[in-house]
Amino acid sequence: MGGPGEPPEGTPEGAPGGGEDEYRSVVFDESFVRAARLQESSAQERMADHAPAVRRRPALHRGLSRQALILVLLIAVAFGTAIYMGVRHPYGPNEARQSVEPLRMTVIPLSPQGKVPGAADAEQLYAHSPAAQFAVGTEGIPLPAWRRTAHFSDGDVKAALTIAQEYVSRSSLHPEVLDSSQVRLARMLIDPGQLDQFDQSFEHPAADGRHAPTGWVVRFDPAQVELADPKIRVQGSLQATETDASTLEVTADHTFVYALRPTGAADHAQASLFTVRRELTFRFDRTDLRTNQTQMVVSYVQAGPLSCAEDSANHLHPLLAGQTARSGGPAGTNPYATGSATALCGTLAATAEPKV
User: Fold this and answer.
1) Is the dihedral of CA 255, 256, 260, 263 positive or negative?
2) 256 φ, ψ (degrees, to nearest 5)
3) 3 Cβ neighbours under 8 A, 6+ residues apart
4) Rounded to two decimals, what is the model's pTM?
5) Of 341, 349, 336, 257, whose CA–CA distance to 300 is shortest?
6) Of 137, 145, 196, which Cα lies nearest the Cα of 168?
7) What is the pLDDT of residue 207?
8) Which end of the chain is least crowded, N or C, by CB within 10 Å?
9) How do residues 218-259 score in pLDDT, each as one tens digit?
């Protein structure tokens, strides 16, 4: 029996409070009605013969929403970019980047035949030396004429020559490199595949043909010498060749002449000349050209006046005005140690020394 105020049989089904209370929150708004696929025929339509009680409404033709349209456009752009990059990829289908080889280096000290000449005026030293006609600084490292090769464009060849030129300049002329205060300028141009060798050379120098800092850069012992004249004399050349379809090589052959004096000496102290001949071979693949870096293949250095008995791997220790080479030959070499390089030493020809 129903409670007070309720019909004896309970609340009729479909009436408020009946079994459909749970659907009270459902609102059949105008958009819901328009979206319905079935539509009841009107009374007039149902009076017609064979008219169905309901009929199916035609599907609505809705356009894409703005968000969907943007998404479709982004997908199309990404797909097109992927196809373009695949076509423009610098490597062929069977071409992979070769492994980067370690730099092979040789540093040969040149011993003077007598006392090292000196003069208070560095310009006078230069004027009476073979470097009298050399250019000053970067002017002595000009770019040669270049042309495209079979597999590299004019721009590629120019880029390789420019990177090599910049490395020669940064590693031979910058005061911060020469006085051993930093090597970052040169390091920035080294291919990542050689950075471990580069860093190990400066952290743990060794005369093993692989880890001599003086094979990477020109640097002096700052406790011993300093520049007497910032106008370093330079003469040399750059040449680019294609070695295969994916590799360019640049050879750099330059002679640098520095005017030096003892560290902390007065300006009028005697200066002397120090000569460094650097023959460097650079290698470039297309990745190097794109990242403005290089792989160094060979570094062959001759420098003097030096004493053959001095270790020239970490720093160059020039003999200054009035000094002579220490007696004795170069540091001992163990031919049974396969990991070490053979010690070499040469004689600085008299024609390479200034006559004052």
Assistant:
1) negative
2) -115, 135
3) none
4) 0.71
5) 341
6) 137
7) 93
8) N
9) 999 999 999 999 999 999 999 999 999 999 999 999 999 999
